[in-house]
Amino acid sequence: xxxxRLLLRxxxxxxxxxxxxxxxxxxxTVTGIGLFVDRLQQSFEVQSANLLGADRSVRRDDPIxxxxxxxxxxxxxxxxxxxxxxSMVFSDQGLQLAQLRAVSSNYPxxxxxxxxxxxxxxxxxxxxxxxxGEIWLSSRLASLLGAGISDKVRVGEVSLLVTKFLxxxxxxxxxxxxxAPRAVMNQEDLAATQIIIPGARVRYAFLxxxxxxNLERFDNSLRPMLGEGERIRTPIERGERVGNTVNxxxxxxxxxxxxxxxxxxxxxxxASSRYVKRHLTQFAVMKTMGATPKKLSxxxxxxxxAIVLFGIIIGSGLGLLVQALIADxxxxxxxxxxxxxxxxxxxxxxxxxxxxTLAFCAPLLARLVSVPPLTVLQPAxxxxxxxxxxxxxxLVGMYGLMIIYAGGWQLPSILMVGLAVVTALVFVVxxxxxxxxxKLSKQSTTGWxxxxxxxxxRLVSNLFQLLVFTLIIMLSLILIGVQSNLVRDWQAQVPxxxxxxxxFNAQATQVEDIKQYTQENGxxxxxxxxxxxGRVIKINGEDVEALYPNRRDExxxxxxxxxxxxxxxxxxxSALLExxxxxxxxxxxxxxxxxxxxxxxDELTISIGGLEYTLPITSIRSVDWQSMQPNxxxxxxxxxxxxxxxxxxxxVFLDQTNAADFYRFMSNYPTVxxxxxxxxxxxxxxxxxxLANALKIVLSFILGAGALVLVASVRSTLDERLQEGAxxxxxGATKQIVRQALLVEFGALGLFAGVIGAAGAEMALxxxxxxxxxxxxxxxxxxxxxxPIAGWGIVxxxxxxxxxxxxxxxPIRLLRSx
Length: 818
Fold this sequence. Notes:
By secondary structure, the protein is α+β, with helices and mostly antiparallel strands. The chain is 56% helix and 16% strand. Strands 12, 13, 14, 15, 16, 17, 18, 19, 20, 21 and 22 form an 11-stranded mixed beta sheet that branches. It has a 6-stranded mixed β-barrel with strand order 2-3-9-6-8-7.
């Protein structure tokens, strides 16, 4: 009972509130970020599933076994099927090769169709598939056929009614590069077409969706039944561009949450230090009254347990409120509701509270038990805090927390190396700077002299305060640097006027006419590249089949026919890494070379039109496959390919103002295939915009938490500053001198912290860019400006504001409390 009475009394006096507030801040920050990240991840998965048309899909060359469907449905999953194939579509006006998708009536399981009653319209959403007897044509296909709404077109032996123009098929991402214009029909009409006969090239897709537990259970039972080349596709795998974007965003959110853990640990350590200092005399008095170490330990254990429980309950509630507010704000920006959070994530906040208490509070509070009774009469005789050992203990606890939160060691290790380097810099550079301030204080007057002298006079406490300021600034700069890099990199993926249509199968005689039209109408196009089909059959004289008896191990350049080209110079989106591009040999893409384990001087034998050509590799190129420019794995000399009939490929950017005219022009060249990837690019752009908004909100939240930690840091030395200010004013110093001294002291601490924090952030960003985000390493000159300027300004403002009691409280009142 005594422990509870003492705890209640300390709550009234405010002594325990500082520690409780720090604990609540830690739990609320980690809980809020953890739940918000979980909701964002769920949202990304939902959006990716919408593009896939389901939660999972399996594509194969044979019809879907009934056993798969029955077993999936027995697991409580919804199922759907599609069959994709190429066929001629006939109308009264003409005929056109099209890419058709026959879908079951309940398709899509996730996402929606986008359709319109007007050709080339923007579209409206619908979850309904075409009814039996109906067909939806893309605007491109409809214009080529001269077909409109209520017209009939023939597919094989069946006539179907055109009821809508297809703008987007939610599953089209799985066949984004089908060259022919698209159409969607009902699967019930497939048999009547009489197109699906033995030997016909049909790509079947089995789609299913449901609860995560049911999906995982069915995935495990389905994998043994998959044939060669078949695999289960998940939403995140459905596209490299969006997949990489989402993965990087999740890495950023994980980084933000991990940094929140670090900030929470710092806040706990500061609050614990302040609590211990304010209770030394109290515990010494209890010892003089006969309290044994065992009794004091029991008393402390009860108090710590109560504080942790209250911190978890209040912090979790506050974290739920914070994540809900952030999610509501983001939902308004995204025009979509975020999924509900997973309540299982609440354990992160509780774990943070417990481990933070054990790592940062318990070692400090436990030392109160050994406080000497002499402290009652001689406060200076208080036990030494052994700061180095406590710091190491806290760092180990922080590292463990980060590993638990991040679910791995790579990200925490990079951050810990950065923190260790910065800690060393702080103590080396800080000690030197404070020693210099002592010399400068002798040459200064009034407030400048007092402020500079204070830096060295409180050497140990100022060094630890400098470390806290530096860590918070460094962590904030890391987030700012990563966030700006990611957004810039995402925006560079899909810049304005990115080509959104590919033109294939153009003959040399047609290229000039199309070039002339695009130039006259101001359409942005890429270069035209000739294409000849060929296959790599030997590497350094050895047959590919002998080198790779298991076909799954074959490098991509050898597993299928490739589009080969020639070029006089490296095209846009490529860069020469090694060798001579103009030499009479093969120029190979970098990743293809790594996969095939070949380099400059190695030879490839390529079969083209029944003839074999053996050529050395003379250059290696990097290729930006996301540039939407035509790119190739292999570029051969013109002398080899010019003897073959080549088809030409290019890309062009079209918008709503010129697409219809260009489509009508291209109807004069029915043999030229055109692929519209505009909707796919728009989906990518929408996801990028949503992710950028999410990152800004998370960044703002973390920076706000960092500001609170800075306030806690200043308040941890407030008692000492109050006593010093009282003595100065008693000795005749004016408020202006005391205020100037505070400005000088906090300004110097902020400036030093900003410089060292910028250096630490730059070092940490190098590791994060290379190992975590897999981005090109870039240096951030802006951080070297932001760090010192923001450090000086923010620390000065927060420091002076938090220490304003030094100026307001009468000296006599402070001296009586000493």
